[in-house]
Write a structure and sequence with these properties.
Largest sheet: none
Radius of gyration: 16 Å
Helix content: over 70%
Structural class: mainly alpha
Order of helices and strands: HHHHH
Distance between the termini: 32 Å
Number of strands: 0
Shape: globular
Number of helices: 5
Strand content: under 5%
């Protein structure tokens, strides 16, 4: 399968997973805060950390277009993050907007660091 087809297939899978995660998080925690977007950015970052290690250790870089660019690129979404942050800010909820921006950043960076650590632990 060509890299372009891998990215297209992975993107469809990732975007569908993001959509379902947003629905699930809204049902679970309510619609007043973008928990789904925050969640996918954490899990996408965590999985990116895991994949970087696993694909390198298992000589699986040929799957990077499918898994990293496609699935995780379609799953995570900083464009939705930006829109969510501005929407909260424009509602006058400045503290909540700041929490969302810094919380998302902390979770995404924490997610990738945790993913790298967990995956490296398997290959140490």
């Amino acid at each position: 399968m060509t890299p372009l087809l891998q990215v297209a297939l992975g993107g469809a899978i990732g975007a569908s997973a993001r959509y379902l995660t947003n629905i699930g998080m809204s049902r679970l925690l309510g619609k007043g805060f973008p928990w789904g977007t925050m969640s996918v950015n954490f899990w996408g970052s965590f999985l990116m950390g895991v994949l970087v290690v696993v694909l390198a250790e298992k000589s699986g870089n040929r799957f990077a277009p499918l898994l990293m660019t496609g699935v995780l690129g379609g799953f995570t979404t900083y464009s939705a993050f930006s829109l969510d942050a501005i929407t909260i800010y424009e509602r006058g909820q400045f503290g909540l907007a700041a929490f969302y921006v810094f919380g998302t950043l902390a979770l995404a960076l924490g997610g990738i660091a945790m993913g790298l650590t967990v995956a490296r632990g398997f290959f140490a």
